[in-house]
Amino acid sequence: MLLGDGDGFVRCACGNVHWGTNGAAGLLLSDPERGVLLQRRAWWVHHGRTWALPGGALRSAETAEQAAIREAEEEAAVPAYAVRLTATSVVDHGTWRYTTVLASVRRAIDARAANSESTGMRWVPPHEVADYPLHRDFARAWPALREHVGRQLVLVVDAANVVGSVPDGWWRDRAGAAERLRDRLAVLAADGIPGGEDGIPGSERWCWLPRIVLVVEGAARGTASVEGVEVVAAERDGDTTIVDVTRQALADAPDDHVLVATADRELRARVEAEGARPLGPSALLALLPPP
């Protein structure tokens, strides 16, 4: 077999041998109707005849997300346009790392074994996954992964409250201040939100690829949406719109993690009553790139 970019075994500092000279990644794809997609590995591959995720070695010029999507298409005929990435979880051994890329289906997918590295694909309900003869490393990771399967992080931002938390002259140009916040949020949407602090779910191994909703009001109502940030202009008062957005997000996907960035005490209590978690403006601003 001819080895390609990134192919090859690594003798890891953990004492085990892993595949992928640049590390490896796999796609944990979930469908609310069918469960998670597992691949039965062919007898001749590393840890053959076990069940795991479609995935493989990273090429030198691609991200873990790109590698996971590519491998899922090559091995399971999963088209990239049919999945929505929601999070990543990394196991880092120092000399080698594996990234699980979590995703949900955008539309029906007819997954199948698309190359010789697998002998079958199967949608498995999450509560049955542990009953399968799993790849050693996937078996270890599964309990932590299962908690967040099919769940997205939704960040609802109270633009007026967050902008107003920093005395930088925003009151002279409220619309411009909202646009600057929107643009910084767009970078956050692309880079992801690390887990494990300030009430953000997951451990330090997690990075969420969020859906971000920016609620604007008053002079900022003309702010337009951009890639990664949906802007909602308040029809009435901003607080009511934020509660409505929060309620709708949880009605659409009750298991999603919904955070609301605001320091307003009354609003924080209202969104907590809906099932969301508040996030302080200072915690949000610490996540954003410099203005």
From TrEMBL:
The keyword Mitochondrion does not apply. Keywords: Hydrolase. Its cofactor is Mg(2+). PROSITE patterns: NUDIX (PS51462). Residues 20-146 form the Nudix hydrolase domain. Pfam families: NUDIX (PF00293). This is NUDIX domain-containing protein. It comes from Haloechinothrix salitolerans.
